[in-house]
Fold this protein.
Amino acid sequence: MELRTNAEQLKGEISVPGDKSISHRSIMFGAIADGRTTVSNFLLGDDCLSTISCFKKLGVHIEQQGQEVAIEGKGFEGLMESEEVLDVGNSGTTIRLLLGILAGRPFFSSLVGDQSIGKRPMTRVTKPLSIMGAKIDGRQDGKYTPLSVRGAALKGMEYTMPVASAQVKSSLLFAGLQARGTTRIIEPAKTRDHTERMIRKFGGNLKVDGKIMEVEGGQPLKGTHIHVPGDISSAAFFLVAGAILSKSEIKLKNVGLNPTRTGILDVLTEMGVDFTIEGNEEELFEPCGDMIIRSSRIKGTVIEGDMIPRLIDEIPIIALLATQAEGTTIIKDAEELKVKETNRIDTVVNELSKLGAKIEATSDGMIIYGKSSLSGGVVSSHGDHRIGMMLAIAALVCKEKVYLENSEAISVSYPTFFADLHRLMDL
Ligand code: SPQ
């Protein structure tokens, strides 16, 4: 598709769609809890719809009307062997968290996904789940899909995670909830804590001491109501668009502000971006508030260490921001980007270079030299939603025509992205 270029400003307000991580987990917890769970502002992205479809195949009754979802949970025991293969589409969160649930179920399951899922490493969850007792196999010794799972009676364990990953942690917490005894998980750096918050919201207990978590198996969970806040990872595209386009002022309503996800806000502050937050309701089970962002003079920065898991999915759009900053930006310690929907170090560097950015890949991140004036050309999302949206925002500051290939990938996390963008442009 041809993207809009040479934009002058963005003005007005939008509500970004519901958080993807929280939407997935609301279905999963609703399915394993006892009783009815209702979810509002559920994300209708392809990934979360894949989660609903998998749980329906596992025998869970789920009604969905737009962004309102109701799940009739019957506990872990209510899950039944599926007659069909469970297809997770493009969703790493669905497959990795589902593996933790299926690991303890006394039946056989087989899991597949799309081409991109077929390249994403699964050993990070299949190995610890096997230590707990599950029998999981797949291509290349269980490293890649298709995967088969034969669930078993699990036993608790202590596990030090080699990579900082909320998906691994969550998968092990789901397994721990079904295991005999205590499961103790140690993360190398703090990652998003939506699963921990949800265990408590569904009436369960969990001990958290910094990067160490302990959960007891066999606890009853009870259905509840979940209101999903707006996704800060989706808001990030408009935060950057508002900052780089002159004369802009945008309000983003009800954005999730969980501190394990707000690394981008720390980086925006560091880079000199002018934004304010109104009505941050911290006491909610997931904090959220409105954000106002204005055109800004931006400067380069260094992003590294424990900050990386707090903004891992925002690195593509931060890289674009850095092309418009005075000075150099260095992103380090971000090897995990190589195993996302695409190798996001390579795709960001290659696609932004095509538009004229001065950007170099490193072994664990990238170096971006500002300030570049971007021209135009043919770019591709390579099937990666976050790359597609980043390129659509990059096009706004391009002087010449920009064509985006594989734009349909954006519906994975933000099906109304172009409608929201055009609304802010046309006011
Ligand atoms: O679900 P998927 O495909 O893995 O989604 C991504 C994304 O960009 O939307 C990553 F590609 O987000 C992950 C995130 O990177 C969602 C997630 C979660 O909900 O627990 C955790 C992060 O992944 P990880 O591997 O660091 O645990």
